[in-house]
C-alpha cells in the first residue's frame, strides 16, 4: 500500500463529493414534487388539477342550438367567423342554465373598438376606424347590428338596402369587392 501513502487528501476530497451528492439527493427528494416526471418533464398531477377547473366557455355550437335567429343573422354578414364568446365573453354558466343566468350585453364602445380601432399594425384590408372620430360618441349598435355589422344590411336576409345596391354604376367599393375578406 505504499503507493497510497500520499493519497489521503484524495480520499478526503472524494468523500466530500460523495457527501455533497447525498445532501443533493436528500434536498432534491424534498423539493421536487412527487408526481414530477410521471409522464414527462412536468408535474403529472397538473393534468388532474387543470381538468378539475370549471369550464368557462361553452363554445359557439352550444349557443347556436338555442339562439338560431342570431346565428342565421350572423352567418349572412361579415362577422360570420367571429364566434359568440369572442364578443360575449365566457358564458358556460348561462348556457348551462339560461333561466337563472342572464348575460350582460357587451358595451360596444369597448368591444367594437377592441378589434376595429385603426392601427398601422393591422392588415390593410381589415375594416378599421378611429372610433371617436367615426361614431362621434353615438353607440356603435345605433348604426351597426353587431351580428351583421354592414350598415343597413337586413338582419333577416343579409340583403343590402336599395340605396347601397342601386345600379348607380359607381366604382366597386375596394373594401367589399375582390373577395379580400
Ligand atoms: C339552452 C338554451 C341556451 C343556450 C345554450 C344559450 N342561451 Fe343565451 N339565452 C337563452 C334564453 C332562454 C335567453 C333569454 C333569457 C333571459 O332573457 O333571461 C337567453 C339570452 C341570451 C342573451 C341576451 C340577454 C339579454 O339581456 O337580452 C345573450 C347575449 C345570450 N343569451 C348569449 C348566449 C351565448 C353567447 C351563448 C353561448 C355561450 C348562449 N346564449 C347559450 C337560451 C340559451
Ligand atoms: C361582433 C360581436 C358579437 C358576436 C360575434 C356575437 N354577438 Fe351577440 N351581441 C353583441 C352585442 C354588442 C350585443 C348587444 C347589442 C345591443 O346592445 O343592442 C349582442 C346581443 C345579443 C343578444 C341579445 C339581443 C339580440 O340582438 O338578440 C343575443 C341573444 C346574442 N347577442 C347572442 C349571440 C350569439 C348566440 C352569438 C353567436 C352565434 C353572438 N351573439 C355573437 C355582439 C356580438
Ligand atoms: C373579435 C373581433 C371583432 C369584434 C369584437 C368586432 N368585430 Fe367587426 N369585424 C371583425 C372581422 C374579423 C370582420 C370581417 C373582416 C373585415 O371586415 O376586415 C369584421 C367586419 C366588420 C365590419 C365591416 C362590414 C362590411 O360590410 O365591410 C364592420 C362595420 C364591423 N365589423 C363593425 C363592428 C362593430 C360595430 C362591432 C361591435 C358590435 C364589431 N365589429 C366587433 C372582427 C370583430
Ligand atoms: C351614425 C352611424 C354610425 C355609428 C354610430 C357608427 N358607425 Fe361605423 N359605419 C357607419 C357607416 C354608414 C359605415 C359605412 C360607410 C363607411 O365606411 O364610412 C360604417 C363603417 C364602419 C366600419 C368599416 C370601415 C371600413 O373602412 O371598412 C367599421 C369597422 C365601423 N363602421 C365600426 C364602427 C364602430 C366600432 C362604431 C362604434 C364606436 C361605429 N362604427 C359607429 C355608420 C356608423
How would you explain this protein's 3D organization?
- The C terminus is likely disordered.
- The chain has 2 domains: 38 residues, no CATH class; 102 residues, no CATH class.
- With 181 residues, it is mostly helical.
- 41% of the residues lie in helices and 0% in strands.
- The structure holds heme C (4 copies).
- The site of one heme C has 18 residues, from helix 7 and helix 8.
Q: Give the uncertain stretches in residue-range form.
A: 163-181
- Gyration radius from CA atoms, angstroms: 32 Å
- Beta content: under 5%
Structural class: mainly alpha
Question: Layout of SSEs?
Answer:
Elements: H1 8-31, H2 45-51, H3 60-66, H4 68-75, H5 84-88, H6 92-96, H7 108-116, H8 131-135, H9 162-165
The structure holds heme C (4 copies).
One heme C binds next to helix 7 and helix 8.
Would you kindly provide a brief summary of this structure?
The protein is mostly helical and 181 residues long. The protein is built from 9 helices and no strands.
Amino acid at each position: 500500500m505504499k503507493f497510497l501513502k500520499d493519497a489521503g487528501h484524495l480520499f478526503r476530497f472524494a468523500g466530500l463529493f460523495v457527501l455533497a451528492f447525498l445532501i443533493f439527493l436528500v434536498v432534491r427528494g424534498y423539493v421536487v414534487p412527487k408526481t414530477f416526471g410521471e409522464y414527462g418533464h412536468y408535474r403529472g398531477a397538473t393534468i388532474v388539477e387543470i381538468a378539475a377547473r370549471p369550464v368557462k366557455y361553452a363554445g359557439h355550437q352550444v349557443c347556436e342550438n338555442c339562439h338560431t335567429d342570431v346565428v342565421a343573422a350572423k352567418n349572412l354578414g361579415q362577422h360570420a367567423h367571429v364566434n359568440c364568446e369572442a364578443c360575449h365573453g365566457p358564458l358556460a354558466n348561462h348556457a348551462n342554465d339560461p333561466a337563472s343566468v342572464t348575460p350582460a350585453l357587451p358595451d360596444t364602445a369597448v368591444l367594437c373598438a377592441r378589434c376595429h380601432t385603426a392601427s398601422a399594425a393591422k392588415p390593410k384590408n381589415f375594416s378599421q376606424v378611429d372610433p371617436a372620430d367615426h361614431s362621434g360618441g353615438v353607440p356603435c349598435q345605433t348604426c351597426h347590428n353587431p351580428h351583421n355589422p354592414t350598415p343597413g344590411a337586413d338582419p333577416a336576409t343579409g340583403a343590402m338596402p336599395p340605396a347601397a345596391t342601386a345600379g348607380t354604376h359607381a366604382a366597386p367599393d375596394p373594401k367589399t369587392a375582390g373577395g379580400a375578406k
